[in-house]
# Entry
Amino acid sequence: MGVSVPPPGSVGQVELQMASLFTEAEPLVLANGEKLGPVEVAFETYGSLNERRDNAVFILHALTGDAHAAGYHAGDARPGWWDNLIGPGKPLDTDRFFVICANLLGGCQGTTGPSSINPATGTPFGLGFPQLTVADLVEVHRGLLRHLGISRLLAALGGSLGGMQALQWGLSYPEEVANGVVVAASSRLTAQNIAFSAVARRAIMTDPNFLGGDYVSQETNPDVGLAIARMMAHITYLSEDALTEKFGREPHPDSREPGFGIDFAVESYLDHQGQVFLGRFDALSYLYLSRVMDYFDPFSTPTSAALVTQAPVKWLVMSFDTDWRFGTEHSRRIVRRLELAEQPVTFREIQSPWGHDSFLLEVPSYHATLRAFLDRALVEVSQ
Amino acid sequence: MGVSVPPPGSVGQVELQMASLFTEAEPLVLANGEKLGPVEVAFETYGSLNERRDNAVFILHALTGDAHAAGYHAGDARPGWWDNLIGPGKPLDTDRFFVICANLLGGCQGTTGPSSINPATGTPFGLGFPQLTVADLVEVHRGLLRHLGISRLLAALGGSLGGMQALQWGLSYPEEVANGVVVAASSRLTAQNIAFSAVARRAIMTDPNFLGGDYVSQETNPDVGLAIARMMAHITYLSEDALTEKFGREPHPDSREPGFGIDFAVESYLDHQGQVFLGRFDALSYLYLSRVMDYFDPFSTPTSAALVTQAPVKWLVMSFDTDWRFGTEHSRRIVRRLELAEQPVTFREIQSPWGHDSFLLEVPSYHATLRAFLDRALVEVSQ
# Structure
């Protein structure tokens, strides 16, 4: 089943690595004062760290991403989620860059999250897991960076929630981030953004198998609610035109007469997206990480504004013209705020029919812009 | 609690009326060949039918509407859902027009629907209720019209699914409809439109209390799923800017610290919309009537195109610039198709910040346009 000969431009076979960061004695102190330790972190790296240790690019993943951004796990036929961007000769050229991607704190793909075992009790955290912030996610990434012996990133780079982490990192610790790339992200969710997430959380938490968040120890899963959340999210990830182009009003091939099953092709697509999601994602992580996004508002605190003014971070902010989840207005707001803080910002609105999902896709002008920005970054750091 | 003195411009106290249409011997024959009879229809009327019986305006309601469009039921403090439009001196001036509004076939506010008792079995229809089309809804309205002794409408008028019925009525029976008013409607849902309804239906049907549609006889209700459906729908009824204007990122007053309850004002709004909906709407009706909308595609059949060419219906089509459920493109398509059939069409895109919900609101240029169109219609019929 697996890929024995990886295609050209692939980083080839990769393995998930684990790091145990922080300790019970020296825990991670969250923004709300709560403490976590140890924190297990799952991560992958592609390419090699150079001798000057100045070619590291940290990939920050989105709400439902994971550490497996590129290459192939043994036996897998499909590569990591951002494989079109990462590899020899690709914009994130692994012949030149050392690329790191880690599963987020609060996630469910190896890094400590709400469904992990709480060492203090021997049972899953469940809803006893602390509420997180984007700043907390960044603190764990910083711990991993220290663990890898790197003191400064060539770039922090991410889309959607990933872009929020890149933004937060550069705002809070400009000395650690030479360049920040923020794609299809937001510095402040709108009421509509929050509303969609609220309905998704409602579907998860009212699933009878949610069991107040104790489903892990009961060996069940709120699959029905999680699938509904995912189906709804997928509507917002694509532009209306993209859904029309892909599915239009095509009937599903198995549909014989009107009913309440899968009559239209678009219903089959949503159903499929909901079902495949269940095999790879955890409902509690969905709750925690979606809430993290709701509260993200980094420019509201005078602290970060003060930090910004001393920061040499060079920013690239990109939006997609058909993205209606975090559309261009969200990116423009980030740009305005960075410019108010006298930060150097390059902004591009990329034309792409695919809506929010575009940040995951091989959109030529998007990749070309990224490539040019990162090439320039590498030249500058080498001088 | 009730309104003892109705405000000026009100039609005052009104009562729901009932008509039993069709019979077991002469049933309603649905578009798919299935038969229903008798069909109970709940309706209201406002104003008086004139001697020439040519001043009747039929209001077609939307997905979750009902027959109570104007005035006050005894003891109620709030008037019907389109009271801002209907009454003495209002655009639907009840001193001049005879206004009829009936609960839809498949509904749950008095007219026969899937939660009604099937006379053949003595138990609720449930999912045994036949699938409907907009044409079927219109057939029942026509039965009511005959029952009232009216052969031709001055106007058929509705918003959203109501506009679809007005369109279908005028296309199928142009001799019965002098004027058709189609507001914020669609002649063909997009994949995105269908997708939202699909997720809503999924939430309803996976609620453990749905019981395969037998919840009525089990004296329970899929309240959790129906509330989720309604919450999601409300996101699509308002423009993103309207949600921002109403709620922004305001915290809910009772919210103390981040959690998974109602932290933001917009979450409280959605929760409230979901809860109040449960008291007045039926989950099976939601399934049936939303599916009716998915399949609506009146211009796909050559039959109606043929009918259109002989029709003297005068059309008013209106959209709202911030409506992203059935935006202006949907209305433009209706206009193009009517124009291709050489129908007289007036089209207006109304500026309103409130999105799809605008059709229910007192938007001045919207009401003024309606008033002018109906005044002209009344003058023409009187000549």
